[in-house]
User: Fold these one by one.
Assistant:
Number 1:
Amino acid sequence: MHLPKNYLRKIWRAVMEFEMIFPHDKVMVGLSGGKDSMFLLYALKTMQKYSPFPFQLSAATIDLGYGNIEQDYLAEYCQRLEVPFYLEKTQIAQVVAKTSPDNPCSSCAFYRRGALATICKKKEYNLLALAHHQDDAIETFILSLFYSGQLKTFRPTSNLDRSGLRVIRPLVYFTEAEVKGALKYTDSKAVKNPCPYAGNTKREHVKTFLKELVKENPNVYTHLLSAMREGKKIELWPPKATKEEMQQRYKRFMGKIDKNEKQM
Ligand code: SF4
């Protein structure tokens, strides 16, 4: 197993800075079969090999019900890496088609995370590792702003619920291009996503939009990354005044007018 030093450094940096993995933690990787999760599993396995402290590693795949996910290939990959592999078949595709046909991805991601959390708890893993990278974080930041009017993105480490299960994203210091380039070290391929929405999502639109901006300003990603950090000076409008607050302000305003008029 091999990864260039700068790649391992990026993962260790994220793991240490965001306090992701501690001795004897049990880490389950959400293995969708895409390039990001294939690389994440390989990277964590390599890290485990050279880690100064022990931790356990496994992988879990959620079959969403969209079609062939090449589960045998994924199982073989895990076997080669000597990592336990779990597969859960679900009806998420049908549920999403019924409940959110216009915005399938956020519901799909929500249910998939729920299914992964259930396997973690069943198999007694305390950490769920997801393969989101730096570009994903930036795109999520823009998606939240454009489609729900909120300044937010996912955190590198977060608590999934009150059960103590934590979600970690060890690839947050990797760009998408770096992950793409790193797949060659894993001696594996990304499996095709059978979802009919793949390639035509809001995220893809945001990605295209950002790529266009980058042509004009190569620092767009760096600036957005910097804007995502807490502690930045933020200058925003105050919250919208309620009816009562508007009445009070009106009274104050009118009081001042009266006073000024009396002085005249
Ligand atoms: S593209 Fe398909 S599989 Fe991916 S999040 Fe959207 S609905 Fe789910």
Note: The longest strand covers residues 56-63.
Number 2:
Amino acid sequence: MTPFIIPFFLSHQGCPHRCLYCNQHQSGGRRAEPLTSPGVTRGVEAGLSSSRLQPGASVEVAFYGGTFTALSRDRQSALLGAVAPFLKRNLVQGIRLSTRPDALPCDEVEFLESMGVTTIEIGAQSMDDKVLEMSRRGHTALDTREAAQRIKTAGLKLGLQLLPGLPGENQASLESTLQGILDLSPDEVRLYPALVIKGTPLAKLYQRGEYRPLTLEQAVEICAWMFKSLTRAGITVTRIGLQTSSELTQGLMAGPHHPSLGHLVKAEIFYRAIASSLQIKPARGSDVTLFVAPRDVSQAQGHARSNLSRLSRDFGNLKIKIKPDPDQPRGLFRWQGEMFSVI
Ligand code: SF4
């Protein structure tokens, strides 16, 4: 079951500099506010009394944004220490935080583990040093590999964040990034196709015509390819695309943002799997009924039922019907008695 997350956001706090594309005051959906230990206590109490918390769900407190591990040790202790009483009473089962790969020395990982941190997410962004340099990340792919190793050696869960579509990226660097991530076998990955946000150096490059973001179609295609490879390797893709917020809407200048990017990606994966099954096994007659798990129906149909019209167009006006079947496992579909996997 997906854990119930109680999030805190530290816009840019601890960051040694601004990366080329980053303006968390616009993309993170919240204004920076000094987070204090009493603020964490109040936030956790409010989260635990939320009506969205299902009985029996595991609860994680998350510190997102900024560079948590580059805050002073006192500040880290104060923020993490505020969660400790909830961990002790088993009201919260874990703490996760996100940070940069070059801000995770061995003693920091040991400290985080001692404070109850269970998952560390690293902003890898790319595994191509040229892309990292052009994005002014200030670290290399080796930093990511070493930090990932430290996290795994400490027995903590490893998450990696990727930003397809950064300047300097091409097919070869995308492929080496995906392979580099698979080699690290993280527990989870987030895919955030790069966006052009107002007030960033990337926005200036874009305005001068020196950077072109991915189109929505390209982002869907890249994320679908990555999602499939990661899922096949047993890695959970926890998020695709930034969450829509009024700040993001105001700050977005260009790029492949869509409020349901994850849905578009999974619908694309369904479309390709159905199309490939129809190529392997041509339909008998002009109608095909596919059975899918009830929760897969909208992905199989595609955004605004676009998969059905695409399949009809691509397969000689074939009429496709998608029907829910409670006995059908998720990620699989069945037609004319044969089972197919979308992954
Ligand atoms: S990408 Fe991460 S490290 Fe870079 S400025 Fe943004 S929050 Fe800081």
Note: The pocket of iron/sulfur cluster is lined by residues 12, 15, 18-19, 22, 24, 66-67, 100, 123 (CB under 6 Å).
